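Lay summary. Proteins are chains of building blocks that fold into shapes, and those shapes determine what they do. In this project we predict the shape from the chain. Here is one chain we studied, written as its sequence of building blocks.
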Amino acid sequence: MSITHLLDDFGSITQGKPVTMTDISLEEERLGAFEKGYQAGWDDCVKSQVEDGRRITADLVQNLQDLSFTYEEVHAAIMGMMHPLLQQMTTAVLPALSHAMLAPHITEILHDLLATHGRQQVQIMAGPEDIPILLRLCTDQPDLSCEIKENPTLARGQVYFRLGEGEHALDMQDVLHRIEQAISGFFTENQRAVA
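And here is the predicted shape, written in a compact code that computers can read:
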């Protein structure tokens, strides 16, 4: 038994036209193939550069947005921590500090008044809490001619000076109140700006 029926018969295939290639046409084919390959490589490179540029630009935009968002978060967190701290300072630290600074303020005001109006007796009115400070001040500065009067209606840190016809006032409570208002106004304005 023969297996020829299983195999292809190439003898019956007719031969086609023979391809003739000259050196010039072979070189043109090579040059054309080289140009096509070079152009395909160049196109791939340009496409890759454009995609990289888009990706880098998108990453940069995202990073800038993240940075801006992070700045806003940090700013809000710092302001959130500063507000209670400053409120506590105005209620706990500044009143004690203002009481400690009362004598230097009064001394400065008295020296300015005496320099402007000449040496005259100064009448000083203060609340009961400030009288010891004023008595010590007059004792420490014998060149000041002071008459100290107690006025029970005056709060701590409120002092009135009378020199001749002129009157002057020192109100440390008012100063503290203005500081509290300034701090509160700052944080209110800051919250509006963030919103």
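What the prediction tells us: The two ends are 97 Å apart (CA to CA).
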